[in-house]
Design a protein that fits this description.
Elements (H helix, E strand, L loop, with lengths): L25 H5 L4 H4 L5 E4 L6 H9 L5 E6 L2 H30 L3 H15 L5 H13 L28 H11 L2 E5 L13 E5 L22 H16 L3 E7 L10 H5 L6 E8 L11 E8 L6
Parallel strand pairs: 1-2, 1-4, 2-3, 4-5
Antiparallel strand pairs: 5-7, 6-7
Bound molecules: S-adenosylmethionine (SAM).
């Protein structure tokens, strides 16, 4: 069992609430990191589905021997936000302070929310610090901190109606900017990470979940959803990663929570010699209250884990 679960302080924390965020599962993930990482033999870390980045923020602050961090996501708003914080954090904070002030002073915060949402959608292709600040503002004031867009790619989450949300945590954003100096944040499909993968690389994959049911909509992070074909593409990609000699850990929902005859992961990972473990997690973002209980999640590795 790895003895490093009681860790050094993680000063920089995820700055967005993100569907599928790994805040809750991080202790299970940490227990299963590869020995090579603990032994200081990993020099590159790749996270092809960065989202809110809970695992990245942990790893970047715990393992100083890693020199290169490559983070990917297909969500352009999200990638613009990471890069703006990396390169221009003080400007993001200034813009966010202005928005916060307007929000607290406003007599009709819902109207203000909707006008910022419109501005964000009108100017989103400008990719600027203003868009980055607007995304953080919307994330803190929208319903449930969701990110959801319609078919045209416009952010359409309703107002959250929180009394006094913390919109700008300037100190955390500065710390995030500091740790991001080590990272390259790229807007691209996960397959583009291949060129950075060497033998001494560790990859953490947290793809959009395979939906537990037909109505579950965990995959609507962007207008391009993650299909069954994409899940297959990813399974094949993991085989390439393994051939390159790199180590990977992948998390996903366990389809057997709902359908015991669904053997997708056994067929596409287990059958290739990868290790599948089930861990308990509680689902935080789900439209039905009944979906908020404890369910199994899968943690899949190409190395043996001894707990
Ligand atoms: C489950 S979330 C990641 C959550 C993250 N681990 C966290 O702790 O917040 C999945 C992410 O994958 C991104 N994504 C969807 N399709 C993708 C693709 N083909 N390539 C790369 N990223 C993709 C989504 O935009 C989303 O941010």
């Amino acid at each position: 069992m790895h003895g490093f679960v009681v860790d050094k302080m993680c000063i920089a924390k995820p700055f967005l609430k993100w569907a599928g965020g790994k805040g809750q599962l991080i202790h299970e993930i940490v227990k299963r990191l590869p020995n090579e990482l603990l032994a200081g033999q990993i020099s590159t870390y790749i996270e092809p589905f960065i989202g809110g980045g809970a695992v990245f923020f942990y790893i970047v602050q715990q393992f100083e021997t890693i020199n290169n961090f490559y983070l990917f996501d297909t969500n352009e708003d999200l990638v613009n936000c990471y890069n703006s914080i990396k390169d221009n954090v003080e400007l993001v904070i200034e813009a966010l302070h202005k928005l916060t002030h307007k929000y607290y002073e406003s007599k009709n915060s819902k109207e203000l929310y909707l006008s910022i949402r419109n501005k964000f959608n009108e100017t989103k292709h400008n990719w600027s610090v203003i868009n980055a600040a607007q995304l953080i503002f919307l994330n803190k004031t929208c319903f449930n901190g969701l990110y959801r867009v319609n078919k045209s790619g416009y952010f359409n989450v309703p107002f959250g109606d929180y009394k006094k949300p913390t919109i700008c945590n300037a100190k955390n954003l500065q710390n995030v900017s500091w740790v991001l100096q080590k990272a390259h944040i790229i807007c691209a499909d996960f397959k583009y990470s291949t060129r950075f993968i060497e033998e001494d690389t560790f990859i953490y994959f947290d793809p959009p979940y395979r939906p537990l049911s037909k109505t579950a909509s965990f995959t609507s992070y962007s207008k391009d959803s993650f299909s069954e074909e994409d899940q297959m593409r990813l399974a094949n990609f993991c085989k390439i990663v393994d051939k390159k000699g790199a180590k990977f850990l992948l998390s996903n929902s366990d389809p057997q929570n709902e359908k015991s005859s669904d053997h997708f992961f056994q067929d596409h990972y287990g059958a290739y010699g990868f290790y599948i473990q089930k861990v308990k997690a509680s689902r935080a973002i789900n439209c039905k209250a009944s979906g908020r209980g404890q369910i199994n999640e899968l943690l899949i590795t190409n190395y043996e884990v001894n707990l």
